[in-house]
Amino acid sequence: MPTVVAFETLTELFLNLSKKYKGTEKTAFARKPQTDEPYETITWDQVHEDTHTLAAYMVTHGIEAGDRVAILSENRYEWAVVDLALQLIGAVNVSIYTSLPPKQCEYILKDSGAKMFFVSTGIQLKKAREVFDNCEDLNRVIAFDEPNISSYLDDEYVSLFDKAMAEGMKELPKQKDEIARRSKTIEPEDLATLIYTSGTTGKPKGVMLTHRNIVSNIKAAHQQIEIMDDDRCLSFLPLCHSFERTAGYYAMMAGGAEIYYAESVDTVAKNMTEAHPTIIMSVPRLFEKIYNLVSKSVEEGSAVKQKIFNWAQKVGRKYADGERGIVSMQKKLADKLVFDKLKERTGGRIRFFVSGGAALPAEIGHFFMGAGLHIIEGYGLTETSPVMCCNTYGDEQMGTVGKVLPGVTVAIQRLEDSKIIAEISGEDYPTDHDSEQGEILCKGPNVMEGYWKNKEATREMIDDDGYLHTGDVGKFVDGKLQITDRIKHMILNAGGKNIYPGPIEDLFKTSKWIDQLVVVGERQPYMAALIVPDFEALEAHAEEEGIEYGSIEDLIQKDEIQKIYNNEVRSYSKDLASHEKIRDFRIVSNEFTVESGELTPTLKIKRRIVEDKYGHLIDDIFSN
C-alpha cells in the first residue's frame, strides 16, 4: 500500500505529513501523563510546533548539519520530538539503550563525538553527569524529567527539557529561516542516524544509516504490509533499535497511523487494553509469554475446559490453513468460547502483530494464527535498515521470514566453498524456489554506508560485490527465507557434527515449565542444556503439591522438580535428531536478563557470557 505522502528523506516525511494533516486535529502520538490517567493525544499541529521549537533551540546552541546528538531515553513523545528536530536541521541521531551502564554510554558519546545529550529520567541524568567531563565534544545535557535529587541540575551544562523548549520558542522567530534553509538542503545520501550495535562481544560499532537507507526500507515495507491512517500502533520496543525505529515509528508515520507509547515494557499487557492498538511490533518473547500463560491457565482448568480449548485450537488451525464451510461455523463458536477472550486482552482491535529480532517458534505462531491474531514475521539486521524479508498478511508461512522485500536482493552462500548457490530479488520473485543451506547475504539500497570510523569492520561485513554478510545461516523454502541460526552459534560436537542450537531452543520454549534455555556441548559427546524455569509455574506447583523449600536454589534441587524437567527434556528431545538430543541439563536459579548481563538490550542471549557465568554447571554436566 502506498504511503500517505511522497518523500525521499525523513525530513520530507515529517514536513509533508505536517502539511497534510495541518488543521485536521489528526492524532500523531499519544502518551500517559500519569499511570492511572487515560491516554493524552498529540496532534500533528502540536508535533510541528514542538519540533520547530526544539530545532530552534539546537541551532541557537550551535548544532550544525552533520553534528551528532545523543538520546538516552525510553520510548516517549520527547524522543520523537528530538529525532524529528534533528532530521529537520540535518543533524545525526545517536540513540543509546537505557540499560547500558555509564562506561558504555561514555564510549558511544566519545566515539560518535556527540555535542548534545538528551536524557529521560533522573537515573539517566546521573549517568550523563558521571561521564560528562570525559566527553570532550559534549557541551550540553537536557533532561526530559525533573530529577528527584535537585543537585543534579546544579551543573551549568544541564537543562530541563521544558526550559529548553521555552528558550527555543523565544528563538524560533530568529531561527525560522535557517531551519527552513537547512531542511531544503538535506539529501537522501546524508547520514540520518548512528545506531550502535549491542553485540555480544567486543565494543559496539556505530552503524551509519542514511536517509536513503531508511526511506527505501519504509517504502518497501509498505509494499508488503498494509498500514492505514486509521491504524494505531503501541510502541514499546526500544526506539534505539532499528526494528522499532523503522517499522514501529517511521513506517507507521508514513502510513498516517497513530503511535501510542506504552508506559514501559512491563506495562504492555495493561496498555494494550487502554490503547486498543491495531498493530504491535514485538520480539518473540511477548508471544512466548502470552502462549505460556494461556497454556498454564488451560492446564489448571477442568477437563471440559481443556477439551474445549484443544478443539478450538484444531478448528483455528484448520481455518488459518484456508478450510471453510462447516469450519467457518465452528470457528465462530471457537471464537466465542475461547479466542475472543484472548483478543480482548490485546485490546480487541489487533489487525496484526509484526515479529522480529529473533526467530518465532512455529508452534506459537500457529497458535496465534489459529486464534485469528495474525503474526507477520520478518527478518533483518541493524545494518540493513533493518528489514530484508517479511511475510505478508494472509500469506504467512510459519517457520519462514517471508519474501525478499522489493528493491532488495538476498543470496545464499555455501559455507564450505563460499559459492553463491541461490539469489532472489524482491522484484522478480520465484514462488517455488528451494535452496541448500548457507550464509545469508544482502544487497540493496537498505544496506548501511558502513561502520562509523571503522573501515576494517566495514570491509569484513560488506564484500567487493556489495553483498553484506549477515553471519546468519538459512535457506529458501518455496521462495521464502528460513533462518537456521547464527554461524558463530554453531556447536561442533566431539564427533565432528555441526549443530545449530537456535531451532532446538525454540522447540523447548513451548514448555510451560521452561522460560529460557541455552544449548551447550562444544566438542562434547552429546548436547546438554542450561534451563531457566518458569518460576511462577514452579512455585505454584510446589505450593499445590506441598513441597517445602527454603529458597529457589533449594526448590530446583528437589527430586520432584528434577523429575519434571527430566520428563520435559526427554519428551521434547524425541523430535530431534540423535546428535541434537538433550541428554543432560542443569537448572539455573536466576532469570537471564539485560541487567544481569546475559541478554542484549534486544533480548538475545549472550552465549559466551552465559557459558562463562555458568561454566561450573557445564563442567559438572560433562565431567559425569
UniProtKB/TrEMBL annotation:
GO terms for cellular component: membrane. Residues 25-452 form the AMP-dependent synthetase/ligase domain. Pfam families: AMP-binding, AMP-binding_C_3. GO terms for molecular function: ATP binding; long-chain fatty acid-CoA ligase activity. It comes from the Bacteria. Keywords: ATP-binding, Ligase, Nucleotide-binding. This is Long-chain fatty acid--CoA ligase.
